[in-house]
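Supplementary Note 3. Input sequence used for the single-chain structure prediction.
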Amino acid sequence: MRAYKNILFIGTSHIAKQSIREITEQFASLNPDIICVELDNKRLHGLVNNEKPNYSLIGIKYYGLQGYMFAVLGSLLQKRMGNIVGVSPGSDMLTAVNLAKRNGKRLELIDQNIDITLRRFSKSFTMKEKAKMLYDIMRSPFSKKMQINLNNVPKEEVIEKLMQQLKDRYPKLYSVLVEERNYVMAKNIYRIMSQNPDKKILVVIGAGHELELIKLVKQEGYRHDRIT
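The predicted structure, written as discrete structure tokens, is reproduced below.
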């Protein structure tokens, strides 16, 4: 959790009970005017209405085979991990959304459209990275060595290490799923922040985005200051 000007950033795990508690506590403490969440319209609709993603085979044509398979497997994996801890995937974002609605706060969706992300993923994921991923899956990434408590958000040093490993091993995947979305979210956050300098803003994003996102928001400010 970090603050920058009129913004408080909360980095979450999408299935951690700790994240739900932290969002609720910081909302009560800060009493923000605006809540920004790592969602787009389609994902928000699915969360609010408890709708399962509709990944019919038509999605292959729409997203591309790789984007389609990633969406399906990612959804199944998150559901499986959520079942382990008894928390539905996306409960962190839904908590923030519900707090905004119940308390009459302005809600802002800052993430890139999921359709764009999946189509970009299909075009960018290379055969080399596919082979690496298959190898890593066969070696079981959830080995005893990881020692990660799914009920809590991993420590900052663990997150940084995991993100660097992802970037080094799967650079194209990292670029599409993390880097490109960070740029989109940073621009949206800076726009909201600069248009509402007297408002308190709570930003709820996945912990893997937090550090880089804050850097990019600051860079947007520096760039804007130089232009003006």
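Residues 11 and 106 are 20 Å apart (CA to CA). DSSP finds ten helices and five strands in the chain.
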